[in-house]
Amino acid sequence: MTKKTLGVIISGIGVFIGFLVILGIANLMTYIIDGVGFVSVVEFFNSNLGFLILIAVIGFANEILWVLRFPFNLVAPVFSSGLGVLILIFFSRFWIFIKDYFELSVVLPFKSVYAVVGFLVLIIGYIIIFSREGKVKKQKQKKEEEIQEKKEMKEKIKELDEKVKDINNKKEKNKKK
What pLDDT was estimated at residue 29? Predict the structure, then answer.
């Protein structure tokens, strides 16, 4: 397990626990604060807690999949697409809560956007993966070329060393004569 993967795991768990702690504190504060708005917001998050946990778990898995190397990251865009749609569904629920609370008549077309968001995130995800893979291949090729150049340079240095030794040997022979 790499440091990057471990960092993603620790970060994901930390954010999730932080959210649960804040929600727990907010629930305790409902006994102290009598504000209808505050209590309504806390109740909204409580009623959507299961959905938010689902989003967190899929987001966590998504982050881990994006850290993996090709071909293990090929399912990451699928998770990203699903996560994008779930986040949009949550925003839709939150908008309905806001609309009902403030008695607004504005209707936003969330449902018509779900498929578009899912498809776009999926396509963009695969573009990112394959463009990264192309860069990785170019970097590998460049490293191999550098290694080959170093080998050639070492061989040339070795040849030059041998020539210098030969010249020195000839000089010593000439001195002895």
Answer: 93
